[in-house]
Design goal:
CATH architecture: Up-down Bundle
Helix content: 55-70%
Mean pLDDT: 91
Structural class: mainly alpha
Protein name: Amino acid transporter
Membrane topology: Multi-pass membrane protein
Number of strands: 2
Organism: Methylophaga aminisulfidivorans MP
Radius of gyration: 22 Å
CATH class: Mainly Alpha
Order of helices and strands: EEHHHHHHHHHHHHHHHHH
Number of helices: 17
Subcellular location: Cell membrane
Largest sheet: 2 strands, antiparallel
Shape: globular
Number of domains: 1
Keywords: Cell membrane, Membrane, Transmembrane, Transmembrane helix
C-alpha cells in the first residue's frame, strides 16, 4: 500500500498501513473475548443453574453466530476503520452512525476497564500470597492500560501479533485443562452425575442467565475495526471472524463442561476465577500455573484488543467531524490513531478505579447489545439498497434474512433478561444515549459534511 492517499481536494494525507492477515483478525476477535471463558460467564450459573448456563451458552452462541455472519458480509464490503459506525453512515444516516460509534467506544472502553481491574486484582492476590499484604490493585491497573496503550501507539502489526501469541496460549490452556480433567473416564475426576441438577429457578432463571451468557462471546464484532488495515478484506475479515466465533463456541462448551463437572452450581455461580479453581481442584501444580498465566494473558489480550477497537472507532468519528477533527489524526511514523489512543486512557482508568466490576461489565454488555440491534436493521437495509448483483461483496452470508431477524429476536430477549437483574442500569444507559443523541443533533451535526462521508464507489441505492 502507498504510504499516502489522496483526498478529494487533491491534498495528500497519511493513511493506515495494510499489514494484517486472517490470523491477526482472529487474534483481535478471540483475544477480546476469551477472558469471558476464564471468568464472568459463570454468573449465568447463579441465575439458571448448570443446565441454564449451558442453554444460555448455546442460545447466545447463536446470537453471535448471526453477528459474525452479518459482520463478515458488510465489513468485507465496507472495508474502513470504524466498523459498524462506518456501515451506519453509509447505509442509514448520521444520527444512527453517531450512536453506533458511541456504542462501540463505550463497550470497548468499559470492557478494557474491567479487564485491567481483573489484572490488578490478580496481581494484588499474588502479592498478598507472597507476603505483600494490603497491596492496592490500582497501580497494576494503570501499568496495564499504559503499557498496552504504548503498544497500540507503536503499531497495529506488533499489537495484534502479541495478541495472537498470548490469545493462543490462553486457548491452549483451556484445552490443557480439558485433557487434565480426564474426560474419557467419567466419574474419575469429573462428577457430572453428582453435580448436575434440575433448573433451580425454572425457565425464568434460564432467561435471566442470557445476560451473562453474553460474556462468552462479547467483543467478537471488534474484528470489523481492523478492516482498513488488512491486506484483503474480502478474505481476512470472513476467515478471521467466522474462525473466531467457531473457536469461542468450542472454548465456551469446554469451559462449561469442565467447570460443572468439578464444582457445585452454588459455588460456581459466584466464583471469581472458575477455571483456575478447576485446576486447583484437579490438584496438578503445572495446570494451576498454566491456568493462572492463561487467565492473566486472556485479560491482557482482551484489554489490548479493546484499546485497538475503541481508538479506531473514536478516530473514525473524528475524521468524519462527528467529534473534533483533532482526533482524526494518524501518527506519521507508526500509522496509528495515536491521539484517540491517548485520549481514551484516562477514561478507562477512571472506570477501572471505581472497582464496580459488575456495573462496568453491564455497561459494556448493554452498549454491545444496542450495536447488535442496529446490525439486524442494517443488514436488511443493506441488501435492499444494494442487492447482490449491484455491488461486489467480499463475502455473502447464507440464509438471508433469517440471521438478521434471529439476531433481532435474540437481542430483544437479552434486553428482557438484563431488565430482570439490572433494570435501573438498563434505563440509565438508555437515558445516557438519548441525551448524547440530543447533544449531537443540537451541537455537533452542523460540523458534519455529509457529502464527504460516502467514500465507497457504489451506484445510487435502489429506490433512491
Amino acid at each position: 500500500m502507498s504510504q499516502q492517499s489522496s483526498s478529494q481536494s487533491g491534498e495528500q494525507r497519511i493513511s493506515m498501513l495494510k499489514v494484517l492477515n486472517p490470523f491477526h483478525i482472529w487474534a483481535l476477535g478471540v483475544g477480546i473475548v476469551l477472558v469471558g471463558e476464564f471468568m464472568g460467564w459463570n454468573f449465568s450459573v447463579a441465575k439458571g443453574g448448570a443446565y441454564g448456563a449451558l442453554i444460555a451458552c448455546w442460545v447466545i452462541g447463536l446470537l453471535y453466530s448471526c453477528v459474525a455472519m452479518i459482520d463478515s458480509e458488510v465489513t468485507s464490503t465496507v472495508a474502513a476503520a470504524g466498523g459498524q459506525y462506518t456501515q451506519a453512515k453509509h447505509i442509514i444516516g448520521p444520527l444512527m452512525a453517531f450512536n453506533v460509534g458511541l456504542y462501540l467506544v463505550m463497550a470497548y472502553t468499559m470492557l478494557e476497564a474491567a479487564d485491567a481491574l481483573i489484572v490488578g486484582d490478580l496481581m494484588a492476590a499474588v502479592a498478598s500470597a507472597t507476603g505483600f499484604h494490603d497491596l492496592s490493585p490500582q497501580p497494576f491497573v494503570v501499568l496495564t492500560i499504559s503499557f498496552l496503550a504504548w503498544l497500540n501507539y507503536r503499531g497495529v502489526f506488533m499489537t495484534l501479533t502479541v495478541n495472537f501469541v498470548i490469545t493462543l496460549f490462553a486457548f491452549l490452556a483451556i484445552l490443557a485443562l480439558f485433557i487434565g480433567a480426564d474426560p474419557l473416564n467419567p466419574g474419575h475426576i469429573l462428577k457430572h452425575s453428582d453435580l448436575l441438577t434440575e433448573l433451580p429457578y425454572g425457565w425464568i432463571g434460564v432467561v435471566a442467565a442470557l445476560q451473562f451468557g453474553m460474556w462468552y462471546y462479547l467483543g467478537i464484532e471488534g474484528t470489523c475495526q481492523a478492516a482498513e488495515e488488512v491486506r484483503s478484506a474480502g478474505r481476512a475479515i470472513p476467515l478471521g471472524t467466522i474462525g473466531g466465533i467457531l473457536t469461542l463456541l468450542v472454548a465456551a462448551t469446554l469451559t462449561w463442561y469442565i467447570s460443572t463437572g468439578l464444582m457445585p452450581w452454588q459455588y460456581l455461580g459466584q466464583a471469581t476465577t472458575p477455571l483456575y479453581d478447576a485446576a486447583s481442584i484437579i490438584g496438578n501444580p503445572v495446570l494451576q500455573v498454566v491456568l493462572f498465566i492463561g487467565t492473566m494473558f486472556a485479560a491482557i489480550a482482551s484489554a489490548n484488543g479493546c484499546i485497538n477497537d475503541a481508538a479506531r472507532a473514536w478516530f473514525s468519528m473524528g475524521r468524519d467531524r462527528y467529534m473534533p477533527t483533532w482526533f482524526g489524526a494518524i501518527h506519521p511514523r507508526y500509522r496509528t490513531p495515536f491521539r484517540s489512543i491517548i485520549f481514551l486512557i484516562p477514561i478507562a482508568v477512571s472506570f477501572a478505579f471505581t472497582g464496580l466490576l459488575d456495573q462496568v461489565i453491564t455497561f459494556s454488555i448493554l452498549s454491545g447489545l444496542l450495536g447488535y440491534t442496529f446490525m439486524s436493521i442494517n443488514m436488511v437495509k443493506f441488501r435492499k439498497m444494494w442487492p447482490l448483483d449491484v455491488i461486489k461483496r467480499g463475502y455473502i452470508h447464507p440464509f438471508h434474512p433469517i440471521p438478521a431477524y434471529t439476531l433481532l429476536g435474540l437481542c430483544s430477549l437479552v434486553y428482557f433478561a438484563t431488565f430482570l437483574g439490572y433494570g435501573a442500569s438498563l434505563l440509565s444507559i438508555m437515558a445516557f444515549y438519548i441525551v448524547a443523541s440530543v447533544w449531537f443533533v443540537k451541537r455537533r451535526y452542523q460540523f458534519v459534511k455529509r457529502g464527504d462521508q460516502f467514500t465507497m464507489p457504489w451506484p445510487r441505492p435502489k429506490g433512491y
